[in-house]
Amino acid sequence: MNFKNIAYISFTSLTFATSAIAQQAEEGYVIPQLNGFRVSCIITETGDTMPYIPLREYVVTAPKSFANADDLNRYQKYRRYAPSVYGYAAEAVRNYREIEAATRDVNRKDRKKYVEAKYEAMNTQFRSQLKNLTKTQGFLLIKMIEKELKIPFFDLVKDMKGGFTAFYWNEFGKVYGYHLKEGYLEGRDPILDVVLKDYNLASPSAPVR
What we know:
- The protein has helices at 3-14, 69-102, 108-131, 135-149, 153-161, 163-174, 190-196, and strands at residues 29-30, 33-34, 37-38, 41-43, 49-51, 58-60, 206-208.
- The protein is mainly α.
- The two termini are 35 Å apart.
- The protein is built from 7 helices and 7 strands.
- It is flat and about 65 Å long.
- Helices cover 54% and strands 9% of the residues.
- It has one domain.
């Protein structure tokens, strides 16, 4: 076992599988057929029909410069692995906030039952993917979530799975040099900061360099 197991159990402690909601057509839009393909259009105030093509948001950043080869290598490693865990981090943040809202007014017993049910559903959906994370991928996944939620992973696990589970994984992580109580602190690791600034979990986008 290694740090990727910590990332897995932590992720499963705060992200949950949810049912997809069918997208509803917005008022004023029509979806005609063109050569067998559905084309989104909008009817203007003058009655004209115009194609409607929503564009995905992209983040463009300036080239980076580094003091030495070690910093450059670490940046390239973080940059290489970050996209592979970005989707998991965004899903974790979204579902954590959703579960917090859904259980805000329920008692502790009912909240625990709700969390356990969602945990089991998520475990089935994500276990195989998360078990294959590398140590660096697990580290980036945790830091992305901590940065967005502004909560140390220890506290997230404690909230979802209890104090004993949080204590166990924090102590186990120390063997590999990780401390789940520390949380994400901007400025502690400037190379990590540079990479994570390209990822907005509140409004998912695709970083471009």
